Amino acid sequence: MRPDDFHYALENTKVILPPQKRLETFGTTVLNYHLITEEMDSVNRMRVREGRIHAHKPELVTPDHFAKLLLEGFGEKAEKYADAVSQFASQIALLKYGFTFRKDETRRYDVSGALADVSARVRSEVESKGDPLAAVLTGVDDGWEVCLLKFALDMVLASGGEHVRDLRNHGLL
Fold this sequence. Notes:
This protein is of the alpha+beta class. It folds into two domains: 110 residues, no CATH class; 38 residues, no CATH class. The protein contains six helices and eight strands; from the N terminus they run αββββαααβββαβα. Helix 2 crosses helix 4. It is globular.
C-alpha cells in the first residue's frame, strides 16, 4: 500500500455508530465492527464486513521497561545510559495496548444502494441488537484494514484517560 493510499484510508474512516462502552481497563474487550465500504469500480455497490477486534487489557510500562525498550539492540556500552533514560521515563506513565483481528470470524457481503442508505440500514440493524460494544464504520475498500486500525487507535485515545484513572484508583500507578 502506498503512503497516499494509507493516508486516504485514514482520512476517509468515519464512525457512524460508536460503541457505547469504552475499552476495559482490567480485561479484554471484544468490539464487534460493521465496516461499510464502497466498491471503487461499481456505482452504488457496497461491501459490508463484520468481525471482531480483541483489545487486550492495557499493560503498564514501567520506566525500567521503557528504558530497555529504547535500548533494545544496542550494545553493552549503551546500557550504562539506561539509568538516565529511566530517570527521564519516571516522569511519564505509559500504557501499552494490544489488538488482535480475527479474520476467520469476518463475514463479508455485498449490497446495492447509496452509501448513506446502506449505512443507515446497517446502523438500524446493529442498534436493534442492543450490543454496547458494536460499532458501524464507513471506510475505503482497498484500505479496509487501515480503517479498522484507525478505529482501534481512536478507541484507545478515548479510553486512555479513564484507564490511567482506574490504575491510579487501584494503586497501580
